[in-house]
Specification:
Elements (H helix, E strand, L loop, with lengths): L3 E7 L5 H10 L4 E5 L12 H6 L1 H19 L1 H4 L10 H26 L1 E11 L3 E6 L4 E11 L3 E3 L12 E2 L1 H5 L7 E5 L3 H12 L3 E6 L10 H13 L3 E4 L2 E8 L2 E8 L2 E7 L1 E4 L3 E3 L32 E3 L10 H15 L13 E3 L5 E3 L4 H6 L4 E7 L4 H6 L5 E6 L11 H5 L14 E5 L4
Parallel strand pairs: 1-2, 1-5, 2-3, 5-16, 7-14, 8-9, 8-14, 9-10
Antiparallel strand pairs: 3-4, 4-5, 6-15, 11-12, 12-13, 17-18, 19-20, 19-21
Helix pairs in contact: 1-5, 1-9, 3-5, 3-7
Bound molecules: flavin-adenine dinucleotide and nicotinamide-adenine-dinucleotide (NAD).
């Protein structure tokens, strides 16, 4: 096997493997190195997303949503299924099957694109060299004109509540519970906390979420956060905002948690505690000396808008670089870099990377939130469409929700009123009659 390639990708997650495939499709010789090993000792491409993130979490969200709907909604449809029960072992087996199919699928895609898969550790050395140590300890030195770093991210550990499996776990641990914990604590009401909290709540866990910030889901619009909080509470999730965890101690099978909030020191005992307070870039033993690749103060690999590092021919993509930690963002970056290397035009429009929380109902947003637009002092319009008025939404859910959109007012070239405003009186829109619907304006007036 050749030790010299046009492109070497280090990391086979959703940023790295699409980069390798696209490079292969661009007729470049390419190798993809990945060290992921599942707890059963089996190596698998696909990184966090396929093995321990997006895919398994979405599999559990689907199973538990079906279960929940059978209990909460079937009767309203006239479907009688009084004895619906959940076999958690079977749910986990289904999830594992999906993960296996997806991760093995990457090998098939590699074969089709002519990518050489290498399972083991990769380390960037100076002079466009890569040290590859296979899982059996065999060492090789490889070279490539271009090297793409896609080493991903890892969960942040909380000093006051260090991981101690099986009681205090990260998101991967929370995806693997063999049975439903009676009392589940979740530190961090972010995307992972909400998705995995929903999974286990739907199966009957008493879920308490401790969120440090005083606002709920502050990454989304305030209005969306408020509406979402109502839904999660309705589902029975006990979400405590402004809660700062001061300690977590394993006591036999349980965990004693202490935290402070506006009322002072509080105590909580749970059977399992999930720590989901964010992820950090993972670059352990990735960079040898004098590679010219720099990390920023938060540990991300420094790159420009085209994912070029400071070293010629060395690129970095996905969770290990700035920007949202999302699989589709990493995939776009990986494909862009593979195209740029091949001499093609490519770019990523970071303004259009969407975010989705896959709860029920799903929460999604793209671009700036209203709060961010406001902070920039721009004029804007908010349009709200209540799901109550949507037949499709009503067919799906009993509850009400809304879809909101913001836009800067469209100006006519001579600076007159926008076309929309001519048809709609200020603050009104076609759905004004529905609770929560309509159009309102914000920001400075001119
Ligand atoms: P990773 O997926 O972390 O892959 C990096 C790979 O590189 C790993 O296989 C790692 O073993 C390997 N590696 C690292 N260093 C080396 C080295 N030196 N040598 C060899 N191999 C190395 N995002 C979404 O967009 N949608 C979702 O629904 C979603 N759900 C999520 C649910 C959970 C529970 C979690 C934890 C994350 C979720 N994410 C989701 C985020 C998503 O998983 C990440 O954004 C994505 O996996 C990042 O891709 P990546 O390729 O940059 O890194
Ligand atoms: P996150 O940043 O979404 O949420 C972390 C939450 O923890 C925040 O609300 C934060 O305020 C809170 N927090 C931080 N420190 C805390 C502390 N000491 N005590 C209490 N609360 C604290 O991070 P996450 O949920 O861990 O997810 C990690 C990454 O994975 C995210 O970047 C996310 O984009 C990605 N992810 C995406 C999806 C999806 O796209 N559906 C699903 C899961 C994860």
């Amino acid at each position: 096997m050749s030790d010299s390639f046009d492109v070497i990708v280090i990391g086979g997650g959703p940023a790295g493997y699409p980069a390798a495939i696209r490079a292969g499709q661009n007729k470049l010789s390419v190798a993809c190195i990945d060290e992921w090993k599942n707890p059963d000792g089996i190596c698998a491409f696909g990184g966090t997303c396929l093995n321990a993130g997006c895919i398994p979490s979405k599999a559990l969200l689907e199973s538990t949503e079906l279960y929940h709907r059978a209990h909460e909604e079937f009767a309203a449809h006239g479907i009688k299924a009084p004895d619906v029960t959940m076999d958690v072992g079977q749910m986990q087996k289904r999830k594992a099957g999906i993960v296996k199919t997806m991760t093995q699928g990457i090998l098939a895609l590699f074969k089709a694109a002519g990518v050489t898969p290498l399972q083991g550790h990769g380390k960037l050395l100076s002079g466009h060299r890569v040290e590859f140590v296979a899982h059996d300890g065999t060492r090789r030195e490889l070279t490539a004109k271009n090297i793409i770093l896609a080493s991903g991210s890892a969960p942040v550990e909380l000093r006051s509540a260090p991981f101690q499996s099986p009681q205090i776990v990260d998101s991967w641990g929370a995806l693997e519970f063999p049975s439903v914990p009676k009392r589940l604590g979740v530190i961090g009401a972010g995307v992972i906390g909400l998705e995995l909290g929903s999974v286990w709540r739907r199966l009957g866990s008493e879920v308490v979420m401790l969120e440090a910030l005083p606002d709920f889901l502050a990454v989304a619009d305030g209005q969306v956060g408020k509406e979402a909080l109502r839904h999660f509470k309705k589902l029975g999730m006990d979400i405590r905002l402004g809660a700062k965890v001061t300690g977590a101690k394993v006591a036999g099978e349980a965990v004693d948690v202490t935290y402070t909030d506006v009322k002072g020191e509080q105590k909580l005992t749970v059977d399992r505690l999930v720590v989901a307070i964010g992820r950090r870039p993972y670059t352990k033993d990735l960079l040898g000396p004098e590679t010219g690749v720099e990390l920023d103060e938060r540990g991300f690999i420094k790159v420009d808008h085209q994912c070029k590092t400071g070293a010629e021919g060395i690129w970095a993509v996905g969770d290990c670089v700035r920007g949202p930690m999302l699989a589709h963002k990493g995939k776009e970056e990986g494909a862009m870099v593979a195209d740029l290397i091949a001499g093609n035009f490519a770019e990523v429009n970071y303004k259009t990377v969407p975010s989705v929380v896959y709860t029920a109902p799903e929460i999604a947003w793209v671009g700036l939130t209203e709060e961010q637009v406001k902070a920039q002092g721009k004029a804007y319009k908010v349009g709200v469409f209540p799901f109550l008025a949507s037949g499709r939404a009503r067919r799906l859910f009993h509850h009400t929700s809304a879809v909101a959109g913001r836009s800067r007012p469209h100006r006519r070239p001579h600076g007159g009123r926008s076309a929309r405003r001519r048809h709609e009186p200020r603050g009104r829109g076609p759905y004004q009659g529905w609770a929560g619907g309509g159009v309102r304006e914000g920001g400075p007036r001119d």
